[in-house]
Amino acid sequence: MKIALIGYGKMGKTIEQIAKSRGHEIVSIIDIDNLEDFDSAAFKSADVAIEFTRPEVALSNVKNCFKAGVPVVSGTTGWNPADLKCEIEKNGYTLFWSSNYSIGVNIFNAVNKYLAKIMNGFDNYEVSMSEVHHIHKLDWPSGTAITLAEGIVDNIDRKSKWVKGTLTNPDGSVTGSTACAKDEMPVSSIREGEVPGIHTIRYESDVDVITIDHNAKSRAGFALGAVVAAEFTAGKKGLLGMDDMLKF
User: I need a surface site. Which of 11, 56, 75, 97 has the fewest CB within 10 A?
Assistant: First the structure.
């Protein structure tokens, strides 16, 4: 399969290595200094593009893929791909988007929803969430944390929405608060070092605490999932996601 890469930072380079190890060809690499290559024959020859960039440019990148007729797999968080749903359906475009491509995280998300359904019957437990990522991640909470939070809110009747909790900055300063209404769930964030990603969900009562967490060891799990998603996406149409690819 021919793959185009959009974004050539640490994640892009890891995706390149894994894609090649699985027998795929990288036909185009687009970064901030060669955006004109969206119009190149090499880019247009790709069976699928994989986009990991920044939230402020993700929409433009995805639309450039649509214009070139190239299906796109995007892992950039901090923007809303659902805004493109009508345009995708009307024009037969293809976008696969996920807040996290790690297979382990998606298994964790399924466990999270199942646990939330159980905890719906035990209102003596308060639920909260925290996530830790590297200092280069700009959006908070993480897209994965938002997905997990929505999985909880959708399954616990006493919680109507999630809200931002505290943010611990790289310099150690803390802003925000976990104080919130009874029907809200706080999601706190920490930015430190080069942490690939840690997500923790905590249920606490007066007598005990139940905690589940996922701790990514490296970017390799995200990159592998993105390549597998690209393999799944090639030849398909519509707005796709992990629920389409993974049937738990």
Answer: 56
Question: Which one of 2, 63, 113, 137 is the catalytic residue?
Answer: 137
184: exposed, middle or buried (Cβ count in 10 Å: 0-12, 13-18, 19+): middle
The C-alpha atoms of residue 17 and residue 57 are separated, in whole angstroms, by 24
Half-sphere exposure of 43 (CA within 13 A, CB side): 24
Residue 181 has pLDDT above 90, yes or no: yes
Confidence (pLDDT) at 99: 84
**Catalytic member of 133, 159, 199, 214:** 133
Confirm whether pTM is higher than 0.90.
no
Concerning whether 247 is annotated as a catalytic residue, the answer is no
CB 79 within 8 A of CB 57: no
Is the Cβ–Cβ distance between 49 and 3 less than 8 Å? yes
User: Is 24 marked active-site?
Assistant: no
The answer, yes or no, to whether residue 248 has pLDDT greater than 80, is no
- What are the beta bridge partners of residue 191? 133
